[in-house]
From TrEMBL:
One Pfam assignment: GAF_2
Protein known as: GAF domain-containing protein
Superkingdom classification of source: Bacteria
Species, as recorded: Sorangium cellulosum (strain So ce56)
Membrane-spanning parts: none
Length: 138
């Protein structure tokens, strides 16, 4: 995982900064789970909890399962059940998990980005973020 992490972390830092975010993650599909491959401004405890994410669990697992972005207006107060309690340790509010597809249209990764303010991301912004996430190095 370390070779991947080294190559993905600079990309993630650029993606988060370029989109006005304050934190982010990259999870790669590995078998029946997502494996944390890069993290920016994510507390170590949250990284421990999210090193392996089952399909359908938390925002990243749901984005993988649904093959569509999963967002929350506020990580701190979300009651949808999509946000796991550990996510509240991230000092952010609005967040989205974006599935990234490979050439055969299968989800190969999930990119997460979180923002300082509480807000709902509109479809145009979700599309722009998804387009940016699709540039994730293979």
């Amino acid at each position: 995982m370390h070779a991947r992490r080294e190559s993905l972390e600079p990309w993630l830092r650029s993606f988060v900064a370029g989109n006005g975010g304050i934190a982010g993650t990259v999870h790669l599909v590995e078998g029946d789970a997502l494996a944390l491959a890069a993290a920016v401004n994510i507390p170590e405890k949250v990284q421990e909890i999210t090193r392996r994410v089952p399909r359908g669990k938390g925002m990243a697992g749901l984005a993988w399962e649904r093959d569509q972005p999963v967002q929350t207006c506020n990580l701190q107060t979300d009651t949808s059940g999509d946000v796991r309690p550990g996510a509240r340790a991230v000092a952010a509010q609005a967040a989205v998990a974006l599935p990234v597809r490979d050439a055969s249209a299968s989800v190969r990764a999930v990119v997460g980005i979180a923002f300082a303010g509480e807000r709902e991301l509109g479809q145009d912004e979700l599309d722009r973020l998804a387009q940016g996430a699709s540039a994730l190095p293979a």
